Hints:
single chain; 114 residues; c-terminal domain of poly(a) binding protein
Amino acid sequence: MPRSKNKVASIARRKKVLKRAKGNWGRRKNVFTVAVNTVEKGYSHAYTGRKVKKRDFRALWIQRINAATRANGMSYSVFMNKLKTANINLDRKALAEIAYSDADAFKAIVEKVK
C-alpha cells in the first residue's frame, strides 16, 4: 500500500508561511525554506516590539506630563511625589491625556497638589 503524504495539509502549511512572507524582497517571499526563516525572525521581532511599545509609551507619557508641569512651574518628580501624598490616584496615561488635550484641567490638578 502506498504511503499517504497528506498533500493538502502540507500545501496549506506552505501557503500559510508564504502568505506571511509576502512583501519581502527576492527569494524571501517565494522560496519556502528562506521564507520560513524570514517569518520566524519576524515573529521574534514582533514579540520584542510588543514589549518595547510599552516602554516607549510610558516614556512619551512622562515627557508630556513633564512639559505640562514645567509650564505650570513645577518639575515632574515633585509633581508626582505631591500627587502620591495628596492621594490623587491618576496613572501616567490619564495624566498625559489630560495634559495633552485639556490644559485647564491639568492646571487645576497642579494647583490642587501645590
